From TrEMBL:
Record-given protein name: Phosphoglycerate kinase
Keyword Magnesium recorded: yes
Pathway: Carbohydrate degradation; glycolysis; pyruvate from D-glyceraldehyde 3-phosphate: step 2/5
InterPro entries: Phosphoglycerate_kinase (IPR001576), Phosphoglycerate_kinase_N (IPR015824), Phosphoglycerate_kinase_sf (IPR036043)
Lineage: Eukaryota, Viridiplantae, Streptophyta, Embryophyta, Tracheophyta
Keyword set includes Nucleotide-binding: yes
Catalytic activity as recorded in UniProt: (2R)-3-phosphoglycerate + ATP = (2R)-3-phospho-glyceroyl phosphate + ADP
Length: 123
């Protein structure tokens, strides 16, 4: 993993080019779009949430998903970084399902055969 100073420099370059990528306007837009869903699959945080300076987007989405989960929306968190993000915010227990198998989960949704699932089917 990158050290904090290196990652911060990389993120600063991205933020200069896409200043509002995960700023207040984007967070509001994502939140509004999520309001109409019944199932949400979140795979990948909204930036480098490990650094407080870049965590606002990820934290806002995690809070929104927790709120929606409380309203009966199915919220599925996939991938180690996404799991770490909802745990950092203290909302992991509010989600419907959490899996560190983000890439594998996406492949399963694509219809690909996963070796572990195939073994279970053959058992």
């Amino acid at each position: 993993m990158f050290s904090a100073p290196v990652m911060a420099v990389v993120m600063l370059k991205v933020l200069v080019v896409n200043y509002d990528e995960y700023g207040p306007d984007s967070i509001k837009s994502f939140g509004e779009a999520l309001e109409t869903t019944k199932t949400i699959i979140w795979n990948g945080p909204m930036g480098v949430f490990e650094f407080d300076k870049f965590a606002a987007g990820t934290e806002a989405i995690a809070k929104k998903l927790a709120e929606l989960s409380g309203k009966g929306v199915t919220t599925i968190i996939g991938g180690g970084d996404s799991v770490a993000a909802v745990e950092k915010v203290g909302l992991a227990d509010k989600m419907s399902h959490i899996s560190t198998g983000g890439g594998a989960s996406l492949e399963l949704l694509e219809g690909k055969t996963l070796p572990g699932v195939l073994a279970l089917n053959d058992a």
